[in-house]
Structure formats: C-alpha cells, structure tokens
Automatic annotation (TrEMBL):
SUPFAM superfamilies named in the record: Periplasmic binding protein-like II
UniProt KW keywords: Signal, Transport
Classification via InterPro entries: Bact_solute-bd_prot1
UniProt keyword annotation of Cytoplasm present: no
Annotated signal sequence range: 1-24
UniProt source species: Nocardioides flavus (ex Wang et al. 2016)
Name recorded for this polypeptide: Alpha-glucoside ABC transporter substrate-binding protein
Family label: Belongs to the bacterial solute-binding protein 1 family.
Domain of life of the organism encoding this protein: Bacteria
Length: 459
C-alpha cells in the first residue's frame, strides 16, 4: 500500500520544511564526469520508438541512477519498462527502491549524494526540495513539450514550483470511485447512478429493501481517519469546485470556510446516517474501528452495496475475487453534485525530479514523459498501475479497473486535483485532519471539527 506510506511520509516532509534546513547540496554530476553533450549517432536511430531520443546522441557507457519509494515486487515492471530507453540510447538505468525514501532523499540531497532522478510522490516534497536546496534541476524543453502534449495543465502545475517547471508526471491513481457488486445490482434491478442525487435515491432504495447501502472503515493505525479526508476532498471538488478546493488546500480561505462546512455536512448525509451505514459491520461509530482494508468486504456477502475508496482498493479484495464489470466487484465514478465543474477527479501520483542535467539524465526524463514509456509500462504491468498520459493506449492496460481509471483520467472534461491532505502542512494533513475527522465520525459536530482543524494550522 504505497499510498499509506506516502501519507506517513508527509510528516517527514513537514519536519524538514519547518526546521528551515538550508540544504546546501550540489547536484550529482551523473557519476561519469562527462560533458553535457554526447556525440555520435544514437544506437536506436531510425526506430520509431526512439525518435524522441535521437537528439541525445550515443549515450553508451553512461548510467542514470533512479531513487524511488517503489520497491519489490512492483519494481520489476519498472525496470522492464526501461528496456526501450536502453536500446535507443545505449545508456543504462540503475534502479534503487527504498521504503524510507521520503526521509532518505532529503538526507542524500543534504549530503551532496543526490540521485540523478527521484520519483517524488508528493508535490509538497518537490516544493521543499526546490525551495530549500539548489539541487533540483528544471526540466529540459523536451520534457516540457511532452507534458504539454500528453498531460493536462493541472498535472503540469503540480510539477511546477514558483513558475518554473521541474517535474513531469509519472504514474497516477484515482480516488473518486465507489465499489459495488455487479451481480447484486443486477439481481435487485439497481442502476449505477450518474448523478449525486441518483446515488442518494439509490441509497434510499437499498435501505428500504432492508440492506444498509453503505459500508466503510477508516482505521489505519497512526493514520486512522485518512479515508474520511478523501471523502471530504472529493465532495469539496464537486460541491464548491476546483478553485475553492485549491484555495482551501493552500489555506487562502480558512479550513472552516462555509463552503467546507456545507461539503462535510453532505458527506455526513451518508457516513453519519444510521439508515445508510455501516452495513455488515455495525453502527456509525463502527466506521472508526473498522480497518480501511476491511471496510468494503461486506459487499461480497451482500451485507452492503456501496463503498467509496480509491482504485488501489482492488488489491484488498480476497484472492480469487473477480474485479471486473461482470465480476464479483467493480467500481463506478463517484458522481458529481452538478455539471458546473466538469468531471472532478481526486487522486495521487509521482513526479520525476532530476538532480543532474547530464544528457543521459535529460534523455531519461524525456523518455519517462513520453507516450512510448507509458505504453511500455502498461504492457509490462499485470495490473495496479495507470497514468494520466493521454498517449497511453487503454487497451494495453491489463486490469479492468486500471482501464476505467485511465478512461476517467483521459476524459477531456476531467479536472484532476491531487489529494489535499498530502499538500497541507504535516501538522494538519497528517495530523489534525485525520484525528478530527475520526472524532467527527464518532459524534463531533461539523462546525467544531472544522474549527479545531483551522486552529491547528501552523502560523
């Protein structure tokens, strides 16, 4: 569950940011002492998939070091996806994954031992590294052009700090999903809702049948409460819109702004409604003590019908569960409350930051930001990965839920916003936001909950 590690990593980011470390680190020179120019003809010259890389010449004998939080067994498909790059350029990629990535990357940069490339899973960490060090190198024009061609403006904005573009998007995940049982829906004549009002009407219909429509769990150890933050973020995007969402995340409006109060009350119409929850588990308060991994499992027994959780929840269903449109479980897009704000999508992802401007590094950045890499990665991956790259052929994705995620991300009406708590100061995003939302589930009032989070925002 990389997402959970990412969330806990925010606390580390916050400590670094608040400590005011003046990290006087120097970017790695690529390790070979070479110049910023490579001569000769690229080994893959003339091959269609190498077209973007020919400009970098023959990079044989050069190596690109990559540091990331993506570890075994997920690392194998990443390494496989680099084969085309190595064949096209002659350069090799040295991959290093670490479960302590968020903390160790800062240490390595501080010590002058930065990798050539790092896959950064939070915009906040990218901002900290850019603003507190001189180590991050702006993306070359070839990367900027790829991102302009293959990604939306919202994605490019997350890789931009103080008006300079540094980091192209890599992978992505979609959080705006509701899980359900296609068989249960067919048996009962229930239709997948297209609007929020349709979803509430469906919830009422299911409740009248004697089944609690929703099941949920937010227990996650030290991170207990984070699933409710996703609920609120999704509803703020739908109810108040992306501009208000951005203002809220950046604290340009207070955390307890009336728009946020209204959005949390709308969440409460589901999660704090005793007629709706907690199917197959208990009462409303049981949501706080149910592990998030187990929150949707009652769907398999017909004890509830709906569970809002991200695409990565596909990995939580028991082995042998058919996750497909006609299988045991599948998901639909969390409907909007109106058509005013297009198709809001809440999610996460990684960004490719460079600490060297050597040609092999720029070539690798260019490759990772291309449609070629996105499709190579999809072909290599059995499931559990997707990208917002619009050049990705959805047919290359193996998993139906990944295909649905890609369709949502590639929707021209999609308005993507990164997980809000992952962008807030650690004291809030990985602290009071989680704990106060847990208190809210167990009985605290909406206004008091949001007031307490507002009061905790660092001055």
């Amino acid at each position: 569950m990389r997402n959970i590690r990412t969330r806990r990593g925010i606390a580390t980011i916050a400590v670094v940011a608040m400590s005011g470390l003046g990290l006087a680190a120097c970017a790695d020179d690529g390790g070979d002492g070479g110049s910023n120019e490579a001569g000769g003809t690229a080994p893959g010259a003339g091959r269609e998939e190498c077209a973007d890389l020919e400009q970098f010449g023959d990079l044989s004998g050069r190596e690109v070091s990559v540091y990331t939080s993506i570890i075994a067994p997920e690392d194998a498909v990443h390494k496989e996806s680099y084969q085309v790059f190595e064949e096209c350029t002659g350069a090799t990629v040295a991959y290093e994954g670490s479960s302590e990535f968020e903390a160790q990357l800062v240490v390595r940069v501080q010590g002058g031992n930065a990798p050539d490339i790092a896959y950064i899973p939070q915009p906040g960490l990218l901002q900290t590294l850019v603003r507190d060090t001189d180590a991050v190198v702006p993306a070359p024009d070839s990367v900027s052009e790829n991102v302009d061609e293959w990604f939306g403006e919202d994605w490019k904005a997350y890789g931009t700090v103080d008006d300079t573009f540094y980091a192209a998007p890599l992978g992505a995940n979609v959080k705006s999903f509701v899980w359900y049982s296609p068989g249960q829906f067919e048996e009962n004549g229930w239709e997948v809702p297209e609007t929020w009002d349709d979803m509430i009407a469906l919830s009422d219909q299911i409740a009248e049948s004697g089944t609690k429509p929703w099941c949920a769990g937010i227990e996650s150890g030290d991170a207990t409460g984070w699933p409710t933050t996703d609920w609120l973020e999704d509803v703020v995007l739908r109810e108040a819109g992306p501009d208000v969402y951005d203002q809220w995340v950046n604290h340009e409006i207070p955390f307890n702004d009336p728009a946020i109060v209204d959005s949390l009350d709308r969440v409460g119409e589901i999660l704090k409604n005793p007629d709706y929850v907690n199917g197959g588990i208990g009462d409303v308060k049981s949501i706080a003590t149910t592990a998030f991994q187990e929150g949707g499992l009652p769907i398999l027994d017909g004890e509830c019908a709906l569970h809002r959780q991200a695409s990565f929840y596909a990995a939580q269903w028991p082995e042998g569960t058919d996750v497909s449109e006609t299988g045991d479980v599948f998901a639909f897009y969390l409907p909007t409350t109106s058509d005013e704000f297009g198709t809001p999508v809440l999610g996460g992802g990684e960004f490719v930051a460079a600490f060297s401007d050597e040609p092999e590094v720029q070539a690798f950045q260019t490759y990772l930001s291309s449609d070629v890499w996105a499709n190579e990665k999809a072909i290599a991956t059995p499931g559990g990965w997707v990208s917002a790259n619009t050049g990705l052929d959805i047919a290359n994705l193996k998993s139906p839920i990944d295909q649905l995620s890609a369709e949502i991300l590639q929707d021209p009406e999609a308005v993507f916003r990164f997980d809000g708590s992952d962008q807030m100061p650690g004291a809030v995003g990985a602290g009071s936001f989680w704990s106060e939302m847990t208190n809210w589930i167990t009985g605290a009032e909406t206004q008091a909950t949001l007031d307490n989070i507002e009061d905790s925002w660092p001055s």
